[in-house]
Design goal:
- By secondary structure, this protein is mostly helical.
- About 75% of the residues lie in helices and about 0% in strands.
- Helix 2 packs antiparallel against helix 3, helix 7 runs antiparallel to helix 9 and helix 8 packs across helix 9.
């Protein structure tokens, strides 16, 4: 059995691989929607995925740093121990990682824009560059800023915007140079899926967050209200994806790609019956993975069609 170096283990935990699977699903969905209308550029696909994953990692590192700094990560927190909370990684090391990840995300984003310039033009490039810089700020300011917006319940809206609308619709625009109204459906869907994952995380931490003064949507709604909120996000996202790809599919067998929706909804239904917060962590991981599996099934269906 391979034993990881303790420091490497906590860096991996700080990156939160279960959220990276969802980030990958969001980036793939943007490319998938574009593939329905144009021949997608593989370089744009690669750098759109890389930029999304770097932004997600940046957000996760900043969240680890911010929650520790503001006292939300303490001995009462339920779930896997965070990197700074463990004492294995120092605050200065995490700040360095945040800066390096932000620079990597910016470099990847610039490469993405350069390959997309032929599609979007100079005006589109400057608009998306501004949005990208705002996304880097949002990833850091969620919990790591002096007055973090995540502690006031605004995290859900920012996640919906940047990992749903901006990621999916932005990649669609980068690939095609156009904005089609119907492409907003998968963008909203992935925004809801991303928000649902954040909500699951916040349900798990609801008691500790309340005591630490981190007033998330889950804290405001309570456990039962948050479970219904999660069910709404998940069911609406699934419905929007089914509606969008029903317009896209041309062969009956392609509709088999919708089968993972049943597993996604079953996972969402479980939240109502998990009173113990520690049980929600595996539910969170499996939910993110199921969304990625759903996206891959849709990709395969579109290719084979």
């Amino acid at each position: 059995m391979i034993k990881l170096n303790p420091k490497l283990k906590y860096w991996i935990l700080a990156a939160r691989p279960h959220t990276l699977t969802l980030g990958l699903a969001c980036a793939l969905t943007g490319n998938l929607a574009a593939m329905n209308t144009v021949n997608i550029d593989k370089k744009i696909t690669f750098f759109s995925v890389l930029t999304t994953l770097l932004l997600q990692t940046l957000s996760n590192f900043a969240n680890d740093f911010g929650d520790y700094k503001h006292g939300a990560d303490n001995e009462f927190r339920i779930g896997p121990q965070r990197a700074l909370q463990s004492g294995v990684i120092s605050g200065e090391e995490m700040l360095t990682a945040i800066r390096l990840t932000a620079l990597a995300a910016l470099a990847s984003g610039l490469m993405l824009l350069s390959y997309s310039l032929k599609n979007i033009g100079l005006a589109g490039m400057f608009i998306l560059l501004s949005i990208g810089l705002l996304a880097i700020w949002a990833a850091y300011a969620y919990t790591a800023a002096k007055k973090p917006y995540g502690y006031k319940g605004w995290g859900d809206i920012f996640v919906f915007i940047f990992f749903g609308l901006v990621t999916v619709e932005g990649i669609y625009f980068l690939q095609s140079g156009k904005i089609h109204l119907i492409s907003i459906l998968p963008a909203i869907a992935m925004g809801f899926f991303s928000t649902a994952v954040l909500n699951l995380n916040n349900i798990r931490d609801i008691d500790n967050d309340r005591q630490a003064g981190k007033i998330t949507v889950a804290v405001r709604l309570g456990k039962n209200g948050s479970a219904w909120y999660h069910f709404f996000l998940t069911s609406t996202a699934s419905l929007l994806m089914v509606v969008y790809f029903s317009f896209v599919f041309t062969h009956p067998l392609q509709y088999l790609a919708f089968l993972p929706v049943f597993a996604i909804m079953a996972s969402a239904y479980q939240v109502f019956y998990h009173d113990k917060a520690e049980i929600l962590y595996p539910v969170l991981k499996s939910f993110s993975l199921l969304v990625l599996v759903f996206t891959i099934c849709l990709w395969m269906a579109l290719i084979m069609g």
